[in-house]
Amino acid sequence: MKIKINEMPLSLSWIAAVTGGALYLNDLQEMPTVSYICTDSREADAKTLFCAIPGERVDGFDYIPAAAALGCRAVLSEKKPDGAVSSVVVEDTVVAMGKLAESYQAAYLPELFTVGVTGSVGKTTTKECIAAVLGVSENLFKKEGNHNSTVGMPLSVMEITHRHTAAVLEMGMSSFGEIAAMSKTVHPAVACITNIGTSHMEHLGSREGIAKAKLEILQGMKEGSTLLINGDEPLLSCAFDLCRAGRITCLRVSLCDPTADYYAFDIRHENGGMQFELMMPEQRRASLEIPAVGIHAVWAAAFAAAVGDLRGMRPPQILAGLRAYRPASMRQTVSMHDGITFIEDCYNAAPESMAAALSVLQLTAKGRMIAVLGDMKELGEESVVLHRQVGERVAALAEHGEIYLFAVGELGAEIAGEAAKHLPASHVYCFAEESPYLETVRALKAFLQPGDTVLFKASRAMTLEVISQALTVSE
What we know:
The chain is of the alpha/beta class. Helix content is about 35%, strand content about 25%. It has three domains: about 1-90, 3-Layer(aba) Sandwich (Udp-n-acetylmuramoylalanyl-d-glutamate--2,6- Diaminopimelate Ligase, Chain: A, domain 1); about 110-325, Mur-like, catalytic domain (UDP-N-acetylmuramoyl-L-alanine:D-glutamate ligase, 3-Layer(aba) Sandwich), CATH 3.40.1190.10; about 335-470, Protein-Tyrosine Phosphatase, Chain A (Alpha-Beta Complex).
């Protein structure tokens, strides 16, 4: 990954000062300055700072000679390299990148309004909704794609310019400490915790552990900032005490509790999207809509409306922004081919997002419903049980019409096994062999007919879009 530093070139001495690193200059060079930053040695050159990140399988430090061979004169690393390259040596390269981005924002973007978004599922949808709303009145920075890690997010910050008035930044994690690090990098003025699910339970142990990790976002928030939480999630109720200690305002967004600060109600599926009423503080009311299907879309829109309201936007502006919302790639992208509706939602999956996707399938379909589902990763000891629960949800769709399941993968077989207990055998197909994609494509091509609606949903590692694309690309 390589980004352009958008304000001005940075000197290696400034980088050393803000990261607390030791500066080592090659005797033959003047003080290097850099206009780009990269984490891949193949993208390095004379104007690029190469950040040598140690990984589980490869160590970026070993690629410094390759970067130097391409003309790189400056590196950030955890050990002093040999040769002609100058370096800043730090204890932890990733931590240093966060400090660098934090100092960049403080020095060049002191007035920037930052929004941080985290949650087990729906982060990107919520980020995109917030960006659509704020984009009506702000010169907004929003990174395309998913750069929500302790490496990707700091690099994104370095791309922001003084012309931007606001930025929406997504914060993902797989272990404790990561959300805290990202929050301390950007110090969000408003932070959103969309929900607490089961993603990454393999690493965090329980939903309580996931909630604790998500609440780390408070660690970088300053006095006077605002935390928006899912008011229907009991595991987030402790946020009020944590916010009070830091003099941070905590507000609830809810679809169930009329006493919440932002309460969405009268929710309905109309005109290919979702419409709802939103009650806001001081009994203000707005009629809103979003061109996406499902309760998860209402959640994202409600959070986005709350952020817009906190920024001083009026309901007509918020509505205009929500109407401009478009889903990110592979997140419930709807297309039509040969009379068949395809819903591609292949970016990631957890039990909560599986349930949301199945509700979209039910709301969208006018004929047969076909769910092509695969493995959900990183669910820990409860993985088999959670996959079987998805199978139950698939079978429950039979109350609303004809439902057929095409399950892919080893854990997909658990979905199929449970669904088969409740559906006719002719409605459940399972492809659990090592390379199931070709057989799945063949079976679907023979099975699908005009009027069908097909959902594709699995964890990113399953690359289920391979099947979707094979069915939608014209021969």
